Amino acid sequence: MALTKQERRFRIKKRIRKIVSGTAERPRLSVFRSNKQIYAQLVNDLSGATLLSVSSLDKEIVAVAGNKSEKAALVGKALAEKALAAGVAEVVFDRNGYLYHGRVKQLADAAREGGLKF
Length: 118
Fold this sequence. Notes:
One of its GO terms (molecular function) is 5S rRNA binding. This protein has about 120 residues and is α+β, with helices and mostly antiparallel strands. The protein has a domain at about 55-115: Nucleotidyltransferase, domain 5, CATH 3.30.420.100. The chain contains four helices and four strands. A hairpin with a 4-residue loop joins strand 2 (about 40-45) and strand 3. Helix 3 packs parallel to helix 4 (about 105-115). The radius of gyration is 14 Å and the shape is globular. The relative contact order is 0.20.
């Protein structure tokens, strides 16, 4: 019997999370993508704390017109700005079981352009 999309993504996510872990010096950049929105957060896995988060529902991003890929790029830039202001320059990227393509790639590229290293 074939796996559903959710089961497949969960298996990939577990496989990634065995390797990828965030610390206070180098937090994990976790991406969640729904059908309409995209969310990104920096997580310290040692303490289980979210350091900061940005989503396409934030006021400054909602105010800008554009398609979902353009919004993902804005989320990446906003995340990079907030991370650098908080003193975080290096992160570990967690694509959360999604393919590194489309909106996830747009967010990652924009975060790199904003100054994050991963």
